[in-house]
Design a protein that fits this description.
Chain A has 66 residues and is mostly helical. Chain A contains 3 helices and no strands. The chains are: A mainly alpha (66), B mainly alpha (158).
Chain lengths: 66, 158
């Protein structure tokens, strides 16, 4: 039981950290890029674009099709 | 990495739009919230309608595969043949700032991989095992599908 709770707390902590980081990134003068900014940067080359869209498609298949 | 994405100054993977390359002064472009247009609201309603229908399909069926592949084909088609007005991507990233994201995403993958390696036991479930029960109720599944569609559109605009 305790191990399961620790695992769930771990996932929650990571998700909260992601949200906090996005909030920090949106503050004026922040050096941290916002999620959209670094995703946009990664999608500049065609390979990055294809890989990220493939990842999005995989997420849809994983959660809604199987 | 493409030549235009290579860092040109120490400690920097890139530069954010609206900021100068070396000396400060210019602030980052601030995107203001705009009232959604009628067309955008109508499109959102159509997408939500699609998500509502798609959520009714049973997993592991041809229909459930089709309702996922169809938006995938549309997004791929739009990305290849008719890209919309894209949101300007930064030509550089601050490597120190970006490393925060890298660390957290790496922790997430490690945490997920640890559960996946052990075949997602009850005592160490994977993220999928935790999310699946949340999106099982029909309305929540439709909302999750709608968010997935919106994410696809947001990606294709980058």
């Amino acid at each position: 039981m305790a191990t399961r709770v620790i695992t769930i707390i771990g996932f929650c902590a990571v998700i909260i950290a992601l949200v906090v980081l996005e909030i920090v990134a949106r503050r004026p003068g922040s050096r941290v890029p916002a999620l959209g900014e670094w995703l946009g940067y990664l999608m500049r080359p065609k390979t990055g674009r294809v890989l990220l869209l493939a990842g999005w498609l995989w997420l849809g298949w994983h959660y809604f099709s199987r | 990495m493409a030549a235009n994405g290579v860092s040109r100054s120490p400690g920097r993977l890139g530069r954010k739009p609206g900021r100068p390359a070396a000396d400060g002064g210019e602030e980052r472009t601030v995107r203001r919230w705009r009232r959604p247009s009628g067309l955008r609201l109508a499109l959102s309603a159509v997408l939500f309608g699609y998500a509502w229908l798609a959520a009714s399909t049973r997993p592991f069926t041809f229909m459930s595969l089709l309702v996922v592949l169809l938006p995938g084909a549309v997004v791929a088609g739009v990305a290849i043949w008719g890209p919309p007005d894209r949101i300007q991507a930064p030509d550089r990233l601050d490597i120190a700032g970006f490393s925060w994201w890298l660390v957290i995403v790496a922790v997430l993958f490690e945490w997920e991989a640890a559960g996946f390696r052990d075949n997602s036991p009850w005592w160490h479930p994977s993220l999928t095992e935790l999310i699946d029960p949340i999106i099982t109720p029909y309305p929540l599944r439709a909302i999750a599908f709608f968010l997935w569609l919106i994410t696809g559109w947001a990606l294709v605009r980058r």
